[in-house]
Amino acid sequence: MNKPQVALYDTTLRDGTQGTGIAFSVLDKIRVAEKLDAFGVHYIEGGWPGSNPKDVEFFAEARKRTWKNAKIAAFGSTRRANLKVEEDPQVRALLDAGTPVVTLVGKSWILHVREVLCVTPEENRAMIRDTVAYFKAAGREVCYDAEHFFDGYKDDPEYAVSTLLAAVEGGADLPVLCDTNGGTMPDEVERITRDVIARLGKPVGIHTHNDCGVAVANALAAVRAGAVQVQGTINGYGERVGNCNLTSLMPNLQIKLGIPVVPDLTRLRELSLFVDELANCQHDIRAPYIGATAFAHKGGIHVNAVQKLARSYEHIRPEEVGNAQNILVSELSGQSNILLKAESLGLKLEKGSPQVTEILQEIKRREALGYEFEAADGSLNLLIQKVLQHHQPLFELLEYHCTFRRSGTALPTCDTCEATVKLLINGERVYSVDEGDGPVNALDAALRKSLRPYYPQIDAIQLSDYKVRILDSKQGTAARTRVLIVSTDGKTDWGTVGVSGNVIEASWLALVDAIEFKLLSLQ
Q: What residue spans of 76-156 are helical by DSSP H?
């Protein structure tokens, strides 16, 4: 691949962690950095060493490693007002981080200079110039982040540009225009960026926030105007509503605009899921390019079309970003949905066959009762097998029973849930009793105890998510309930669904499907 025309500057580990609910341990940060480096990101901003001990520890660990593609950057601010740069402890901590790149943030909006920093415009420019020059003299590559630049430019363009010139005079390698409040529109970003590049006589970078939902669009507008570096975060993490989302930006640059940025986009979804997992965040299923529904098709007309020609309803091949086409089955489905879904499940059906019609009718009948199979491939697979009369149940349920006991004077930790399960397995009556944290957990434990002697593989099946949805809330406590269970064996995930007026029965149906689906696939 040729030298990139646009460099990717990832700030997930610094700006991203300012987002609500986002936190990484030092080990997490190292693992994310290693993943970003392997992916081909050019700059990784590891944190602000002057702000907390964890970031200091990260940079100490980072110095022990060899980075193949990325340069590690430390973030900090310009020197304090009326203080020599070499006497500023924050500047010293930034230098001690020992990174090849230092990113400095400074004020470019006259409002902040006068009302927040409370210094003269001249002193602010001196703070920028002195700090940049100090790090250049120390042999560092310096990016200068002009905070609130677009607001500052619209308020006083001459002063805003003069702060960039101060950074350039200090030797800054790249001034970066920041839309810190996230309130600028793409046409403004493109016009202002173009004007700044003309006035500076050198390229700039762009740093955008997503407060108006246009952070990626603003970054692309800046690139069109000549920006050579884009700062952002994986999955759009960041303060308030987040930063420019690199998982959207990268394919937009590389696939749509033909600007090469990374060697292999086919690992993009994997990268996104990895970072979400370490951040303990629910993955955005509707995320462009890499979300679980980014290439999902539900309406029968759409499915019929993609069956003939995928690009009729898909703007790129899902495989280009590590995703996959997903045919959803619902009451909106036609025969094409059933055929493609069955094929993805390893089942071959003929279009127009009575079996396809019967499957479709059964799906629509169940969905009228409250079932949804879009996220329940396991239950859908079993349903198809049953209609085709291919299903061989692992057991026959004779009876199950749950009890919950609590003493009025006991602590909540003394609550007891117990379940008994009676099954017929291979002609043998099996009876098991077990306890759990709740009735569903107790049922799960008792069911597993019964099945384990016959199917030891059951220990590899773990429940990873459990969701309950009330379907007709007007019925109050008599409302029907839908339970969706997501299970995993550590390698693959599958969903199952159950519906009943009784939440325990709905849970049992989903639980049995989850176990049967996996164990039958292993036979």
A: 89-96, 110-112, 121-137, 149-155
